[in-house]
Structures are given as structure tokens and as C-alpha cells.
TrEMBL record:
Residues 27-54 are annotated as: Disordered. InterPro entries: Bact_solute-bd_prot1, SBP. Keywords: Cell membrane, Lipoprotein, Membrane, Palmitate, Signal. Residues 1-27 form the signal peptide. The keyword Methyltransferase does not apply. PANTHER family: ARABINOSE-BINDING PROTEIN-RELATED, POLYGALACTURONAN_RHAMNOGALACTURONAN-BINDING PROTEIN YTCQ. The keyword Membrane applies. It holds the Pfam family SBP_bac_1. It comes from the Bacteria. It comes from Paenibacillus gyeongsangnamensis. This is Sugar ABC transporter substrate-binding protein.
Length: 437
């Protein structure tokens, strides 16, 4: 392995970043033609079954947190893949804790490991590992179905130098979750703008309850919420000279010290800790990824719900996603591509919506009324999209370094170790050095 890859991956380990075509239906044949067509179809199916399963009996490993979250649905996916391709999928549970996932997958790929054929990655890791040369192109998988996926996601995340490297599996946003009972007990309406949001946060903060809950620990959680608040104020996360970016960080600081609507524990809490506090009724509002609804189980809808993004300078929030990728060092590349083809198909995508994050990369699946009926949370994707609330995270091949440097500067400010001016200067200097500007 080249020095560049060794350097990149050794940095990654210490960084701990976060976070098919469906043809038109044909008319049904009638009479003798129907019987004839039925016989022909059966013969063709027999021939197709043999030719469509050239890798029958092969085993393909998939390293994924999806199995960790929902083993039952993962088992359904494994069964469907084997029925379609004859390939046995071996799901290997990946940590749900993001820093642990980053560490383990980076060590494996940087050492040339082939124990994982397919790896489930977010767009940050995808971008980094593409640049490092760790991922195998899968254009033959995505070209036939590309029209079903978001063009912007394909261009910004899946593609590099005209080649596809990922199958988009989820379309995830950071949604505003609220505690229905806390709002009702306080006689508050859901906020629609900055003033209403701050007023609600203040009035909900009492008796050990905080109006706004956060997960601001280093390793991606702070990175996400900082970008989200930057977007809310109309700032640019990669430009810390922007006064709107500065205003966003000032607001986060105010949550802690001026308004005291966010617990100091947020500075060290992971997503798991924040989620549990929300479920326990300790927080009135949190911005979190869609999977929180699955963690809440039957409490979502009854005790908690998602509301539109209140407008500060904008009503924007993060949209992101996770992808299935092919390990460059896989010994089962052709068989793995057959598995990825199923994952990219409508049948495969319809299984993915059953997992806790309850989304899919295939836009036709997300808009399918039957799917929305079966998985109600998907409706929020449409609502947020129609409101113009979704905005992707800034992507760069050095995104891991940007995350580490900016989180360090912002964490110091939010911990009251440095001033806001020092924070902005330190962050902007690091950004310029990393981007080479």
C-alpha cells in the first residue's frame, strides 16, 4: 500500500468521524395465447433460473450495522437475496457506535483485508475511502437503475471520475422530534420560527427537563449539529469568516450558558445517550436522524412526533445517507455485485425501508403509496423535501480532517475554554490549510 493510503488511514483511526428498474406492466394474455404464453414463460423461467444463478452456493459477507439494529429484517434480506441469486449472504454485525465502526472498518481496509466483501458506509466514509482507493467501481450495478435514485446523491456521493462506487440505501434527514406531552402540559404550540423555538425551549426547561437536547461529543455528533445550525442561520460551514456561521455557533453557546436550555452533558453525550434522554422525557426537542423513530418503537406517534423545521434565517436541515460499497480487496467481487444488484432493485429497496431508519435510496420506493402506508415515517421525507428543508453536508476528499479540526475548535468554545473570536479564527485557519486555500 502507498504511503498516501497509510497516512490517510492512520489519520482516520484517530479521527473517529461520526457519521431495480421496474418495467411497465404488460397486458394480460387471453384465450389460447394465454396458455401458450404461460407454457413459454415457464420454460423461459427454467432457463433463466439456471443462467441467473451462476454464483449459486457462493457466500458473500456484508459488514453492516443494519443487522445489529434489526436482525429479523436482515434475515428477510438474506433470504430474498438467496432466493433471487442463489448466493448466501453472511451478515457481520458492525458497531452502532460510529467511532467504533470507523476504527474497525478503517483498520480492515487499510491493511488490505478481504474479510468484508460489501461494506455499509455513510457518505463521509464513502468519500474518504473512494479517495484512498479502497472501493471497487460498480458501474455495471448502478447504470441500469440510476434513474430511480437521486441525481444529486449519485453525482456527489456515489460517483467519482465517471464511475459509480455505491448503492444508495437510505435517504436520511435530521428531523425535529418533539415530546408531545411536554408541549401539551406547557400549553405550547409547536414552533414555526426562531422566536417561537427559543420561547418553547425556555418554557420547557424546568424540573430537570431541558427544552433542547443535544449530542455534541466529538466524533461526528457535534459536526452534524453544528452544520445543521449553520444552515439554519444561512451560514457556510466551510467559511468561518461568514457572520451567519458565527451567529450559529453563538446560538449553540447561548443554549448552554445564556438561556440554559441545553444540558452541559450534551458536550459529552453520544447519540445513544441523547436518544435515551429524549425517550425518558428529559428533553422537549431534539434534531436527530430518522432512525430515532425506530428506537422509540411504539412511543413514536403516541408520545413523540416529527414537526416541520422552524425558520430561523432558513428552514434548512441536513440530509444524508448510507451506502453499500464493494471492498477493492474482495475475493468474491462478481458474486458481491450480484448481491448489490438485488440491493439496488425495487424489491431490495422495499426491504430496506423496514429497518429502523425507515428510508430507501430509490426515490420511486419512497413515493410509493403502499410503502408509505406500511412505513408511515417515510411521509416526512416528502414533507421536508417539499418544504425545501433538505441540504447535504459539505463534501470534500479531506472531509475527515475537516471534521476533526473544526470539531476541536468548536468543542473548545462550547466548553468555554476559548472565546468565540478565537474559535472562529482557529477553525478558519484549519479549513484553509486543509483545503489548500
Amino acid at each position: 500500500m502507498g504511503k498516501r493510503n497509510w497516512f490517510l488511514c492512520s489519520s482516520l483511526i484517530t479521527v473517529f468521524m461520526l457519521a431495480g428498474c421496474n418495467g411497465g406492466a404488460q397486458p394480460a394474455p387471453t384465450g389460447q395465447n394465454a396458455a401458450s404464453n404461460t407454457q413459454t414463460t415457464k420454460k423461459e423461467e427454467t432457463k433463466t433460473t439456471a443462467s441467473d444463478k451462476p454464483f449459486k452456493g457462493h457466500e458473500v459477507s456484508v459488514y453492516t450495522s443494519l443487522k445489529t439494529r434489526d436482525a429479523k429484517t436482515w434475515g428477510e434480506l438474506e433470504k430474498a437475496v438467496e432466493e433471487k441469486t442463489g448466493i448466501k449472504v453472511k451478515g457481520i454485525e458492525a458497531p452502532q457506535n460510529y467511532p467504533d465502526l470507523v476504527s474497525k472498518v478503517t483498520v480492515s481496509l487499510s491493511s488490505g483485508g478481504s474479510n468484508y466483501d460489501i461494506i455499509y458506509l455513510d457518505e463521509l466514509l464513502t468519500t474518504t475511502f473512494k479517495s484512498a482507493g479502497f472501493l471497487e467501481p460498480i458501474s455495471d450495478v448502478m447504470e441500469p437503475v440510476k434513474q430511480n435514485f437521486s441525481e444529486s446523491v449519485l453525482k456527489s456521493i456515489s460517483m467519482s471520475d465517471g464511475k459509480y462506487y455505491t448503492v444508495p440505501i437510505t435517504t436520511e434527514g435530521m428531523y425535529l422530534f418533539v415530546n408531545k406531552k411536554l408541549f401539551a402540559d406547557a400549553g405550547l404550540k409547536y414552533p414555526t420560527n426562531k422566536e417561537e423555538f427559543l420561547d418553547a425551549a425556555r418554557k420547557l426547561t424546568k424540573d430537570g427537563v431541558y427544552g433542547y437536547g443535544g449530542s455534541w461529543s466529538k466524533g461526528g455528533q457535534l459536526f452534524n449539529d453544528a452544520i445543521r445550525w449553520t444552515y439554519a442561520f444561512g451560514g457556510d460551514y466551510l467559511n468561518w469568516d461568514d457572520p451567519n456561521t458565527k451567529a450559529a455557533f453563538q446560538q449553540m453557546h447561548d443554549f448552554l450558558y445564556k438561556d440554559k436550555v441545553t444540558a452541559a452533558a450534551a458536550l459529552g453525550d453520544t447519540y445513544d445517550q441523547m436518544n435515551q434522554k429524549m425517550i425518558d422525557g428529559k428533553y422537549g426537542m431534539v434534531y436527530q436522524w430518522a432512525y430515532l423513530s425506530g428506537v422509540m418503537k411504539d412511543k413514536f406517534g403516541k408520545d413523540f412526533e416529527v414537526i416541520p423545521v422552524p425558520k430561523f434565517n432558513t428552514n434548512q436541515t441536513l440530509v444524508a445517507g448510507w451506502h453499500m460499497t464493494l471492498n477493492k480487496n474482495s475475493k468474491q467481487k462478481d458474486a458481491a455485485k450480484e448481491v448489490l444488484k438485488f440491493m439496488a432493485s425495487r424489491d431490495g429497496q422495499k426491504i430496506f425501508v423496514k429497518f429502523p431508519q425507515q428510508t430507501a435510496g430509490d426515490q420511486t420506493v419512497i413515493k410509493d403509496p403502499k410503502v408509505i402506508e406500511e412505513v408511515p415515517f417515510i411521509k416526512y421525507i416528502g414533507q421536508y423535501s417539499e418544504a425545501g428543508s433538505f441540504k447535504t453536508r459539505p463534501m470534500d476528499k479531506n472531509i475527515n480532517k475537516l471534521q476533526d479540526a473544526t470539531e476541536s475548535a468548536l468543542q473548545s468554545y462550547l466548553s468555554d475554554q476559548i472565546t468565540l473570536e478565537e474559535c472562529m479564527a482557529r477553525g478558519q485557519k484549519a479549513i484553509k490549510e486543509i483545503l489548500g486555500k
